[in-house]
Amino acid sequence: MSERRRRYTLYVLTQLDEEGIYLDTLATQLAQLEATDDETYEDSAKTYLQEQCLPTLVDVNLVDYDPRTEAIHYWQNPSLEEWVEHAAFKEDKTEW
């Protein structure tokens, strides 16, 4: 939760329905949360997700990630979601 990009990723993941999300969609949403002055960094967001964030979230059993299909499934965690909701409120990132 201390890393901004991972926190933003969790903001998106905790809002998902049970069907999951694809890497490109998650990267787009992450880039939108990070956007400044109408400039987005989708390529940077996708690389970050593939190389850093998703492996960490897989290691702590929060997501399943299939690199072949680029499908991501978030496993609900009520106590984490409470922290994520609080952080999103504090950062004013409750709607995107």
Structure description:
Pfam families: DUF7344. It comes from Halalkalicoccus paucihalophilus. Residues 2-72 form the DUF7344 domain. This is DUF7344 domain-containing protein. The protein has four helices and three strands; from the N terminus they run αβααββα. The protein has one domain: Arc Repressor Mutant, subunit A (Orthogonal Bundle). Helix 1 packs across helix 2 and helix 1 (4-13) packs across helix 4. The mean pLDDT is 86. It has helices spanning 4-13, 23-34, 42-59, 78-90; strands at residues 21-22, 63-66, 71-74. It has a three-stranded antiparallel β-sheet with strand order 1-3-2. 55% of the residues lie in helices and 10% in strands. It is globular and about 35 Å long. With 96 residues, the protein is mainly alpha-helical. Strand 2 and strand 3 (71-74) form a beta hairpin.
Topology:
Layout: H1 4-13, E1 21-22, H2 23-34, H3 42-59, E2 63-66, E3 71-74, H4 78-90
Antiparallel strand pairs: 1-3, 2-3
Helix pairs in contact: 1-2, 1-4, 2-3
